[in-house]
Amino acid sequence: MKIGVLASGSGSNLQTLIDQLHYDESCEIEISVVISDRKKAYALTRAKKAGIPSYVVKARDFPDRHAFDERISELLDTHAVELIVLAGFMKLLQPAFVQKYRNRILNIHPALLPAFPGAHPVADTLAYGAKVSGVTVHFVDEGMDTGPIIAQKSVPVFDNDDEDSLHARLQVEEHKLYLTVIKWYAENRISFAGRKVIVKGSE
Ligand code: GRF
User: Bridge partners of 105?
Assistant: First the structure.
């Protein structure tokens, strides 16, 4: 199965996928392309080091968001991507894109959705005073962090946590959970009962 990773930042989730999938020759999941909307994203360096084709697609180079999404879609299709993996991709994909790839786009979010959606979940968690946070892997729908939830893992919040310390603890779980869910998808174990996601054999 070919996956395409979209990332805007450091790309630590991408790195886990590179380490666990790309360098495992027996693995049937291939990272066929990495796309970033930011030229300086370290995710691009990680892709280059691993010899994975990578592209910069900047929103401001296009007349509108639809044209931006179309360019991303074109690259994904050129690289025969079957599953799109958002790993810290900071642009909201437009409804036409989501509809084209319905149930073929995954996102990871550093909070237990539906709590703390949006761009600053870790800061929001701390500001609210929550005692438990966690990570969520979900399908992407037209909303902001509103798609069907596939898997979640809780992480404690400590009194002396700041954004960096909590995010670091969350990322340890992100890296494990994303890999697990991508493997479930590749093994065809994911199905739907309405909005609810069922994972065969995970009970
Ligand atoms: C992760 O915390 C992810 O959940 C969020 O953005 C962050 C990306 O981190 N959507 P990285 O670039 O993979 O290190």
Answer: 84
Q: Which atom of ligand 1 is nearest to the CA of 122?
A: 2
Write down the pLDDT at residue 66: 97
Domains of the chain: 1-101 (3.40.50.170), 108-203 (3.40.50.170)
Instruction: Please give the number of the atom of ligand 1 that sits closest to the Cα of 15.
Output: 13
Nearest CA residue ID for atom 6, ligand 1:
88
Q: Tens of pLDDT along 70-101? A: 999 999 999 999 999 999 999 999 999 999 99
Helix/strand number for the chain, H first, E second: 6, 9
Quote the ligand 1 centre to 108 CA distance (angstroms): 7
CB atoms within 10 A of CB 194: 6
For CA atoms 164, 166, 167, 173, the dihedral sign is positive
101 touches 148 (CB < 8 A): no
Structure tokens at 9: 């930042």
From 109, 138, 167, 175, active-site residue: 109
d(CA 18, CA 22): 5
Mark whether 109 is an active-site residue.
Answer: yes
Alpha-carbon distance of 150 to 63, in angstroms, equals 35
